[in-house]
Amino acid sequence: MALAVGTDSWLFTEEETIKNIENGTLKFTAHIRTGLWRLCIIVGYDYPDICVNVGYENADEGREEGQETSMAIMRANRVSTVFPVITLVLLVTGFTVSAIGNIQGDIKTLIGSVVYISGGLTFAVGIILYISSINDEVGHRQYNESGDLVFQYSYGWSFYFAGLAFLFTMLSSVVQISLFLKRNSKKDDMIKIIPGLDGVLSDPEDEIPGGASNPTIIL
């Protein structure tokens, strides 16, 4: 997730652009890759890409007429950008708490797993907003004289890295919760985890001769 948040390959776009110059108009195809924080123009011919930082704090509300679709997408994504960052913070926190819990063998492992799940849900909300904003802006793209689309886009490896991070986060949460419950399946372990549970649990062996050794909950 840290690699996805810090890189600039979330979205690749190809767009025909017309610029007014002194002696007429200049028509060219712009190849752009964007991340959460920067926009880079792919120059090609072994030249380095030209990158600029995205200033979300100066972005106005609403759609600007005549604006390139690539730029409009960046403006529209200023809300969804926050969610991957929050997800990264939650994942780091969950990893730290889970590591401490595994070392000490206490309930911190379970708390870390809950934080992991919260991070995954936060990312899911962010990625839905991200994709929705792209589809919304692409819906307003222009057509050329032949009726063909003048704008094309594809998701980059940073986007897919974030998706893999989401899957591994959910898998890690399930594994940690399963191992925690397996490691603390005895009555004494349950009482240690949940204070006050000793007054709720009773051992059937004390009431029924030859009863099962598993504790039951008296409602």
From TrEMBL:
Compartment(s) where it occurs, according to its Swiss-Prot or TrEMBL record: Membrane
A GO cellular-component term linked to this record: postsynaptic density membrane
Report which residue ranges the record marks as coiled coil.
Answer: none
Q: Name one Pfam family in it.
A: Claudin_2
Topology in the lipid bilayer: Multi-pass membrane protein
Keyword annotations of the record = Membrane, Transmembrane, Transmembrane helix
User: Where does the sequence pass through the membrane?
Assistant: 81-103, 110-131, 157-181
Give the Gene Ontology MF terms in alphabetical order. Answer: channel regulator activity; voltage-gated calcium channel activity
InterPro entries associated with the record: CACNG_subunit, PMP22/EMP/MP20/Claudin, VDCC_gsu
UniProt GO BP = neurotransmitter receptor internalization; neurotransmitter receptor transport, postsynaptic endosome to lysosome; positive regulation of synaptic transmission, glutamatergic; postsynaptic neurotransmitter receptor diffusion trapping; transmission of nerve impulse
Indicate the family of this protein.
Answer: Belongs to the PMP-22/EMP/MP20 family. CACNG subfamily.
Q: What protein is this chain from?
A: Voltage-dependent calcium channel gamma-5
**From which source organism is this entry?**
Mytilus galloprovincialis
